[in-house]
Design a protein that fits this description.
The complex is a heterodimer. Chain A is an alpha+beta fold. Chain A has 13 helices and five strands. By secondary structure, chain B is mainly α. The chains are: A alpha+beta, B mainly alpha.
Chain lengths: 430, 205
Amino acid sequence: MTTPIQNECEYDQQLRAYLDRELSAETTADVRAHIATCPSCQAQIGFMKAIDSELAAWRGTAEAPIGLRQRIADGVAETKADGTTAVQIKKPRTWKTYALGGAVTVCTILLLAAIIFPVFSKAREVARPGGYDYAPMAASSPPVLGIHEASKAGSSEVVAMSGRLAGVNGVAASTSSTTEPALPAADISAPPEPGQPDVYNAIPRQIIYTADVNITVPKLGDGQSELTRLVYRRRGYISQSNVDASKGDVASGSWTVRIPVTQFEGFMADVAKLGKVNSVHRDSQDVTEEYSDLTAHIANKQIEEARLKEYMQHKSTKLSDILELEAQLSRVRGEIEQMQGRQRLLAHQSDLSTITITLTEAAKAAAKPVKPSFLYLVGHSFSGTLGDMGSALKDLAIWFAGALPYLTIAALATALAHRQWRKAATAEVR
Amino acid sequence: MNQLRDIQDLILVRAAQRGQTKAFDSIVARYQRRIYNLALRMCPTEADAEDATQEAFVAVYRGIKGFKGGASLDTWIHRVAVNACLMRRRKAAGGSDATVDDTVLDERLPDTAPDPLAEALQTELSATVADAVKRLPEAQQTVVLLHGMQGFTYAEIATILACPIGTVKSRLSAAFTCMRRTLAEYVQPEPSITAAPTPATEASR
């Protein structure tokens, strides 16, 4: 038998598609029936299968050249460079750029020197009046007012700053100016913010306030009932209490109370009136950043979750893929829940401040003054310095925000002067 | 079939679109071997193949922002690569084929059968097939390589070449008729060996 090289069979055109199963069921059946009776088509099918296996063997035979990946990376880098060279050509200056930069820097330093001193000292004053002493909180208000007045008389820069202060603490500022005669009553309904008068409060902040107060009272029982009354008046609650009247000869008790943040300052002032304040320690932790980070993370993860769900619904048919996606999905879900839990905790903690009050009966307490331990002193000193550094940085940030418009003007002026000078220089050359 | 791969590709593409160089690098790592091997068959010399592969991936980088994800990344990269190869080929029209064939075949030697005679026959057959593919008209050759070597379906090839499926079908059929004429002496004269194929045993790809 000889091979029919010139295959003129009418089914010839269909054989390739038949082998690839790209024909309709009807045609497939037809072609199959034909092949069974046609040696020429059988030969052609055999030929195609041989070629197919040969071609399939070509797949991935050669390793990619070792330098290829680097060449591609270089090509890509060139593409990127092409985009930027056009921009770079526009500014071939070298030392002139430095001259401009230098001029701006000098201007900035001059401005800084001119403004920094008064503003800085004022900001310090603003930061101070809270101090560690709560009873005279009302007395500390006049200095704040004083600053407002002084600033109006001062440089325009300072006026702008105080304007911002007044804007932010609008309620507090107006209250204190109208109720000035009634100031001795510490019970101001909208007291200044805890710690420093917080200029940043324009942004909704998440701050966890904690305080520790040690007070000597004439009689523990009276102090206790008065304290309870105060807590409820401030819409707070006692989360833990511990009264120890039997041990030794000094009766004392400690209470951990949760007070709404808005009532924190008023409550502290009230508590201070219970008796002689031995020590006050207060602390705040700003978790705004963590809180907003968490919010962003959660949003991201939720998008990822939605996308995975979409894949599950639309694209997956294979069981192994679905299992893989399922695992991913439960991981993402777990992460979201964990972060939401943390977020809730932060929100709860920053809604309510935590205050621990220790009341000691006066009678024999005098004999036992609270002597801070060495470790306490070291820790206190350390955290005090840290706090100072933090507030100095904040002051600087406030100042910079205020000075920014001036700096912009100064930079523009310098740039203009520089251009003029360059024009003059080129004219001279000609 | 390759849905997990497609999802991974999609993630890489999205990252690359956001300008992450590492993601693009991963795409290169995933596809360079596949593309380079295709280029070796489509371009006259090894150097041309390497150049074409490089050009293809740089073009992929440039165009990745516009890649919508309607087709799979594999298909899209092949579209770019096929164009790059054809450009190379037209530029260097009329190169010598022999050198390429030899080197490509050398690299395939390790996985051949131990029988020297069979080996020789197989090598000879491979070289002849390679030669026959090389001699095909450009359009047919491209379809044959995408189909037999890269394993694409007719629909995918139609997407890559931007032509109707019917064209793919007819080009492929014509290519095999053409090759059979070239390789007439290699066709087994006994049809009984390959007779009566049933679809179940035809899983050659």
